[in-house]
Amino acid sequence: MKIIIIGAGGHGSEVHAYLRSMMAQGRDMEICGFVDENRRTSSWLGTKVIGDFQSLKKHLLANKDTAFHYITATGDNATRQQMVEKIKSLRLGNLSAFTLKYPDVFVGDYVEVDEGTCLAPGSIITTRVTIGSHCIVNVNASVSHDCRVSDFVNINPQAVICGNVTLGRASYIGAGAIVIDKVKIGTGTIIGAGSLVIKDIPAHVVAVGSPAKIIKRIKN
Q1: Which of 45, 60, 58 is nearest to 4 (CA)?
Q2: To the nearest whole number, what is the mean pLDDT of the chain?
Q3: Residue 33 per-residue DSSP state
């Protein structure tokens, strides 16, 4: 399996490390390069930098008989959505999204994970959970039973999502935050690191604290 990492920043370096570790454990995959519009070097972390999205298109057209897979690698939800939209606009038939599940991840029964999502080392998805496309469930984060995680959500390291929680599209759960059972988090909402969410939080706001309180509205 030939994999291209979209994004050559902090999260990109982590995804690169996960893939290299998986390869060392015997997974049949190859990291073919990074795509990043802001990185001008020819290589990074010992891996080729293909260039921007037009360079990606040229690369794939030059290898049109080879199947490639990509994973978006940025923690910023809006940027991750833009990356996917740019890739789709290229209309490349030999490029599809890769879902990364690190070997030590626990994924229980009746769990659905859509394309392009990253389940990082130590993450736990218990049972009867749906996770959308191009999400990040980061290191040692946990998602409990009957949760619904929409597309482009980022659940940061050691966050705890209790049972029957709904996370709206492109919501962001900060490191170490806890969302108690049956809570709904709205679209595009940011929950601050270490916060305790005990009631529903609407769309497009920032909420922080224990218990979490809205401190800012986000223009959408």
Answers
A1: 60
A2: 96
A3: E
- HSE of 177 in the Cβ direction (CA atoms, 13 Å)? 26
Distance from chain centroid for Cα 57: 23
Examine the pLDDT at 105 and tell me if it is beyond 90: yes
Per-residue pLDDT band for 39 (boundaries 50, 70, 90) equals confident
Q: Mark out the alpha helices in the chain (DSSP H runs).
A: 10-24, 53-62, 77-90
Given the structure tokens 């626990």, which residue do they identify?
106
What does the block give as tokens for 135?
A: 């999400």
Measure the CA–CA gap between 220 and 203, rounded to whole angstroms.
10
pTM of the full predicted structure? 0.95
Q: Coil, helix or strand for 178?
A: strand
Contacts of 41 (CB under 8 A, 6+ apart): 49
Alpha carbon 89 to its chain centroid, in Å, reads: 20
- Percentage above 70 pLDDT, the chain: 100
- Judged against a pLDDT cut of 80, whether residue 76 lies above it is answered with yes
Q: What separation in angstroms does the CA of 183 have from each of 163, 168, 180, 195, 212?
A: 9, 11, 6, 14, 12
Measure the CA–CA gap between 51 and 34, rounded to whole angstroms: 7
- What architecture (CATH level 2) is domain 101-203? 3 Solenoid (2.160)
- The CATH class that applies to domain 2-98 reads alpha beta
Structure confidence at residue 219 (pLDDT): 85
Query: What ranges do the domains of the chain cover?
Result: 2-98, 101-203
pLDDT in the model for residue 168: 98
Q: Which helix (H) or strand (E) holds 106?
A: strand 106-107
Tokens of 167: 């996370």
- For residue 93, what are its two tokens? 């038939």
